[in-house]
Amino acid sequence: MGAVAVDAMGGDLAPVAIVQGAVDCARLDQIPVILVGDEAAIKSLIVKCGASSLLDNSMLSIVQSEGAIAMEEKPSAALRKKGSSMHVACDLVATGTACGALSAGNSGAMMAIATLQIGRIEGVLRPAIAALFPTRKGFCVVTDAGANVDCSPEMLAQFARLGAAFSKAFFGIENPRVAVISNGEEEGKGTDLTRATLAIIRSSDILCEGYCEGRDIFEGRVDVAVCDGFTGNVLLKTAEGTAKHFARSIKEAVQSSNLIVRLGALLMRPAFNRVKAKMDPREYGAAPLLGLKAPVFIAHGNSDAYAIRKAIQFVARSYQGNVTHITQRTIS
């Protein structure tokens, strides 16, 4: 397979965590990575990781860029920085040098740059960010998770199709169950937007489960949940905050309890670790941009090396699963 182009300068912990994650992925998973950014700084970090041999056997390579996109920068301004690490990473994909791209930097800028340089699949109205939510039965693809705040019913209906195509290609679900996120499951609930969206989806060949509520996502009742970017982003951030709150609360309760409770918690540690691993956003914190001509993922801004390694795996898995081709057939 081709190499994954990684923006080494994007993210709160860049470039250290990005380079370490890329080194781990190349070394342990045998996925070739192209690191884009300050060549001297990247090479120095690779040497510190004791991974110079990965440069020699082409599992790692470096491409110089000029500057990086700041987290607070507006997408319109970012588009003008043609030599940035994001631009160069996306250009490597557009020219066929890389099979996909990843950045933990400014998500709005990455979406704008990737859309312009890599391009949308023909027929796609707007690319959408998909968030992967862990459920009792696997994963639920929630889209849009922040890219498009103001949406038409036609856009949301297409997000349903994009999410279903991704679920089929990435998770192997032959006929994904799709629902529209609303404030209740009854047909009369929702807004003009959700009702019109549901009508379009029902008239298509998608397996439509009607409306779903936020709690249904975690129960695994549906494989794809559709909403506008405002709703999706609020849902995503609330879920992340809730998970952190409960983990912190349990830890504090155990620490402030008597010896018997602490011993019981020690015996429960294996079970706690399994739950923690399933809820850890680093395991699936990279969100795909659906509707583009090649795999593009956006990692969380505070991604550490482990999260970056997992995110690179996601890009490679998306390429190997022919997500783009399956989406093209679905949209056409």
Write up what this structure looks like.
- By secondary structure, the chain is an alpha/beta fold.
- It has helices at 16-28, 39-48, 52-56, 75-78, 85-94, 107-117, 153-171, 192-202, 214-219, 229-255, 259-267, 269-279, 305-320, 323-331, and strands spanning 3-7, 33-37, 60-64, 98-103, 128-134, 139-143, 177-181, 207-212, 224-226, 287-290, 296-298.
- It has two domains: 1-124 and 291-332, Isopropylmalate Dehydrogenase (3-Layer(aba) Sandwich), CATH 3.40.718; 128-283, Isopropylmalate Dehydrogenase, CATH 3.40.718.10.
- Strands 3-2-1-4-11-10-5-6-9-7-8 form an eleven-stranded mixed β-sheet, with helices on both faces.
- Strand 5 (128-134) and strand 6 (139-143) form a beta hairpin.
- Helix 7 (153-171) packs across helix 8.
- The two termini are 26 Å apart.
* Major sheet description: 11 strands, mixed
Using DSSP, what is the number of strands?
11
CATH topology of the largest domain: Isopropylmalate Dehydrogenase
Shape field = globular
Radius of gyration: 21 Å
Query: What order do the helices and strands follow?
Result: EHEHHEHHEHEEHEHEHEHHHEEHH
Mean pLDDT: 92
Task: Fill in the keyword field for this structure.
Isopropylmalate Dehydrogenase, 11 strands, eleven-stranded mixed sheet, 14 helices, alpha/beta, 332 residues, single chain, globular
Q: What is this structure, in a nutshell?
A:
The protein contains 14 helices and eleven strands. The chain is an alpha/beta fold. A hairpin with a 5-residue loop joins strand 10 (287-290) and strand 11.
